[in-house]
């Protein structure tokens, strides 16, 4: 699949999971630390690559759902996405991720909310990037 690039983000990381990462424009600038649950120091005030991925996925997925709502002429009042990204060991000896997206759609019926979210999942570049590689569970709630 060819991609016509419309925007490119740039960032640099030093020190791996116990280091620092920053976008080229400096708007994202965070210290990283392996959480205690994974045997790391769990430094206060530090984040993880999984936190950053969850934040990006939630924002992108919400935008894709809002866009597809307009395309389907089903305009929700709001879309809230809570992304949970898990990391753990795989049977093959490496590491893998899991994703759970809890999507609250305000102003639509449950059926229409599910249509919008399914269409958003098909459109979202994060969903397309992980498709077939990461288990993504989606829960849709119309409110």
TrEMBL record:
One of its GO terms (biological process) is response to oxidative stress. Coiled coil: none annotated. It comes from the Bacteria. Belongs to the OsmC/Ohr family. PANTHER family: ORGANIC HYDROPEROXIDE RESISTANCE PROTEIN-LIKE. This is Peroxiredoxin, Ohr subfamily.
